[in-house]
Structure formats: C-alpha cells, structure tokens
Amino acid sequence: MKVAYQGEPGAYSDEAVAALFEGAQAVGFPTFRLTFEALTLGAADAAVLPVENTTAGVVQEVSDLFWETPGLRIVREHVQPVRHCLLGWPGPVERALSHPQALAQCDRYLHSRQIRSVAYHDTAGAARAVAERREPGTAAIASRSAAARYGLYVLAEGIQDDSENRTRFIVVERGEASRPATAAGPAKCSLAFVAAHRPGSLAQALDCFARREINLTRLDSRPMQGRPFEYRFYLDFAVNGSPESAEAALSDLEEASAEIRLFGTYPAA
Q1: Is 169 assigned a catalytic role?
Q2: N or C: more exposed end of the chain, with fewer CB within 10 A?
Q3: What ranges do the domains of the chain cover?
Q4: Which member of 35, 123, 138, 167 is catalytic?
Q5: Of the residues 169, 193, 237, 263, which is catalytic?
Q6: 99 in helix, strand or coil?
Q7: 200-210, pLDDT tens digit by residue?
Q8: pTM (2 decimals)?
Q9: The pLDDT value given to residue 47
Q10: Is there a shared CATH topology between the 85-157 domain and the 180-267 domain?
Q11: pLDDT tens digits, 64-101
Q12: Which among 78, 82, 100 has a CA at the least distance from the CA of 31?
C-alpha cells in the first residue's frame, strides 16, 4: 500500500503515516497540491494530511484543496503530539529553518532568543538542508527522529510554545463521502458550504445544528477567489448517539446553503 504525505522522510506527517499504516510505503511530496494530485491520479492509495494544530490553527491550504478536488473522502482522523526540537551544530543560533506551521508553534521560544525564522517547505527538509549546508548559526526546527536521520545535534528539545501541542491528521482516499446516517459509534462529519447571500443566512445555517443540540468541533471561513469579500465556511460536527439527528441537520443545511460539499463521516479519534 502506498500512502502519500507532504514532506520528506522524518517529517511529522511521515511519522503519522507510520503510526496509522504499519508496513505501508510512505511516499513524500514537496507540496500539498502534489500530494492531492498523487492521490487523485492513483499514484497513492491514501494520503495522510494535517488539518489543524492546537497552537497554529487550521492548515488552510489543505482545506482549500479539498474544496477544489472532487472525488475524495475522509475515512479516519489521528491526533498526534508534536514535540519540536532545535537541530543543528554546537554554537550560537541566529536563524531557524522550518515549515511555517512549526515556526508559528515555536514563536515565543524563537522571539525570546532573537532567533530569526526562515520559512522552508518542510520540517525534515529543513533538517536535511542544515545538515548539507553546515552554515554557522543556522539550525532547523524538526523532530528528534529527523536529527537522527540527518546526523544533527539536538540543541534544545520541547521548544513548542504549548506543552500540549498536537496536530490533527486525516486519512483521505478516493471515493464518495459517507453521510452521518452511516455512522456507527462516535464519529465526525466534515464539510464546506457557502451561505446564501442574504441577511441571516449564516445564522440559519448554524441553527440547523443548534436546534438539534449537535456540537460543532470546527468552524472557520475562507475568502472565495473571484468573489471579493464573500466567504466559504468549513465545518466539522460531532455525530454522537443519534446519526438520524445529524443526518437531518445535514439535509437542512443542504437546503439552506447556496453551495455545499461533503468531505466525509468517519470515526472520531
């Protein structure tokens, strides 16, 4: 089985693949877009993607690519603790390379030590670059396993601003998204919708869940390309105990929305 992820060997997404798919072949890609393309074109059987972090928030590019890419469904979620390390060579550190999400998760640590943040496409890729370049004063923020892989010193460990730092990953496959009515046991449902362009439309959309006492576990907005100051909303909700109520709420939302796309119903982590 081939499982796609964004990044290089030793990245946190690579570790998530190993935790979820024992014995699978993990295949890394430089960007999220290429990861999505690999899955849609059949170069991978599944993909493991980060969707939100407890410190840095939502990974917006993944959300946007889900909207753009039909024929995919979420089948599982996985929450993984993330413990960042400062990797490099002995001596003063002036700059740190890493993925923007990792840099954001270590912002206070870097600011307090006057270490300049340098964005890189991937945490493990940053570690590899530091190992290859051996530039004085340059370090990477990545995992301890990346240090072992690329032969770097762990200069500091646990540098994330929040000791409870976690990233939520989803497993994505090709196929039709499951609806809440199919849920067996505690589950989540993920979707995106565009509210009707009239006063009170967002409140009406959210009331589909509120009047049934269904808990929303995520709600955020993204601007719509080509439609200035109009927004698309991404929403996750819990399907606990009553798949029928959750299905009814989704049906009402479909009627109340100008546009909607279901991403899947899947077991909650």
Answers
A1: yes
A2: N
A3: 2-81+166-174, 85-157, 180-267
A4: 167
A5: 169
A6: coil
A7: 999 999 999 99
A8: 0.91
A9: 98
A10: no
A11: 999 999 999 999 999 999 999 999 999 999 999 999 99
A12: 100
